[in-house]
Write a structure and sequence with these properties.
By secondary structure, the chain is of the alpha+beta class. The chain is built from 16 helices and 21 strands. A hairpin with a 2-residue loop joins strand 10 and strand 11.
């Protein structure tokens, strides 16, 4: 996960804009300065390491944003709080100043890529915005039980409670893998804030499991392209900030790409060591004490949303319709027609692994993945933009059918809970029906 590798994976994914991550760490900041150069508009580009590398020399490569994540652990209101916040900086100079100030306030930045600091969210906001008011502060994975703004175990019930007088500068929250935009649309204090989606990288293949798509809006015409730069002009840090603030501008948030929230590892309430898992209705009925060991269950994101929601899911009037520039239906709200839509996807390597057998990291899956992404210009283009007949011509009807099923939402997900990821099955229904038929036939004998 060095920067040239992040760049290469972002390009193969079809990502036009990717975060540097971890600029609070001195060694990683050194890597940023060695491998990237500022373009003068708030973004950075890769320094070409090898002019003979055709892949690097191709036009339209990914650009970088200076983004980092900090973990604040502190007491407030008589409770222990654990909050992760994303900090976006428009320049390396600003990032350096923030790092210097964090160190002066006792932060040990060398200890981890995501440093643990004793500053409250209010103090973090004050520190960052006093150095450069053009920075962005966005609560990370806002619903994760243990380390987030709305976390059931160590968070708050509102943005105001967490950020105090600086709450007016919190223009967006990040959904996290265990929640969808629709779940967040139920929270009234988010009506005036953007819902954005990112995801920790962890490895090149996992890059972009969730993403935010910025589109150009010029003379009322929306240019729906995942690539963030094109012949009409380049996106800038100012454009991104304006889009996230929901101000009218050249660029805006077009839609977000989401993990199935059930696949997230904190979607349902439960206790993994005892094998207990509850949906919100069960939790409402049975409570949050484990029936096996008597300890407190980890309250899942679904139940936490139910606790804080100011409106029901039915009030959102959710519908699906064709999403411009794609081969997939987006999810919209008739109650909030100005809200950007979202789509739910399964990573291509996971789809291929189920379609042809084996693990996502197996050589057969990797070969097929490379063939598809080479043929159609990236993973997102395969998942969102390429016609099913064209996919079938390259990879055969079974893989084409698998991608089509994911686009139509015809999949089965066993929801995650208490740190256990949910399990996605594309052909789950057929296998269950076949098993039932076999059981019925055997019962005849």
């Amino acid at each position: 996960m060095v920067i040239p590798q992040i760049w290469e994976w972002a390009k193969r994914k079809g990502i036009g804009l990717v975060a540097t991550g971890d600029w609070t760490h001195p060694l990683w900041m050194r890597e940023i300065k060695a491998n990237l150069e500022e373009t003068g508009n708030g973004l950075l580009k890769l320094k070409i390491q090898n002019p003979n590398d055709k892949f690097q020399m191709e036009e339209g490569g990914p650009l970088f944003l200076l983004a980092t994540e900090v973990s604040s652990i502190y007491s407030q209101g008589g409770k222990l709080r654990r909050i992760h916040n994303l900090i976006w900086s428009p320049t390396i100079e600003t990032a350096d100043k923030i790092n210097k100030e964090l160190i002066s306030r006792g932060a040990n930045l060398i200890a981890d890529g995501r440093p643990i600091i004793g500053l409250t969210s209010i103090q973090v906001a004050e520190l960052v915005l006093s150095i450069n008011p053009n920075c962005l502060l966005i609560p990370a994975h806002a619903w994760t039980p243990w380390f987030s703004l709305y976390g059931s175990e160590s968070g708050f019930d509102s943005i105001d409670e967490c950020f105090g007088s600086f709450s007016k500068y919190i223009y967006a929250i990040e959904t996290g893998l265990s929640s969808s935009p629709a779940m967040n649309w139920r929270i009234k204090e988010l009506d005036t804030r953007s819902i954005v989606s990112f995801s920790d990288a962890h490895s090149g293949p996992k890059l972009g499991r969730e993403a935010t798509v910025f589109v150009m809006n010029e003379n009322g015409i929306t240019n729906d392209k995942l690539q963030m730069t094109n012949e009409k002009g380049n996106i800038t840090y100012k454009d991104i900030r304006s889009a996230i603030m929901q101000k009218t501008g050249k660029w805006k948030i077009g839609y977000t790409i989401e993990f199935y929230p059930e696949e997230g590892k904190y979607h349902y309430t439960g206790h993994r060591s005892c094998g207990v898992k509850q949906d919100p209705s069960q939790t409402k009925q049975k409570g949050t004490i484990c029936p096996v060991c008597g300890k407190k269950l980890t309250v899942g994101v679904m139940h936490r949303v139910e606790q804080l929601a100011g409106r029901t899911e039915e009030e959102l009037r959710i519908r699906k319709q064709e999403l411009s520039g794609t081969q997939i239906k987006g999810i919209f709200s008739d109650t909030f027609p100005d809200r950007p839509a979202f789509v739910m996807l399964v990573p291509l390597q996971e789809i291929l692994a189920e379609a042809i057998g084996g693990l996502p990291a197996s050589q057969n899956v990797q070969n097929e993945y490379k063939k598809l992404t080479d043929s159609f210009g990236g993973e997102f283009e395969v998942l969102l933009g390429t016609s099913i007949p064209d996919i079938s011509k390259i990879s055969g009807p079974r893989i084409a059918e698998a991608i089509d099923r994911v686009r139509r939402g015809e999949i089965v997900v066993d929801p995650g809970f208490d740190g256990v990821f949910g399990i996605v099955k594309i052909w789950g229904n057929e296998k269950e029906k076949a098993a039932e038929q076999t059981k019925d036939q055997l019962s005849l004998f």
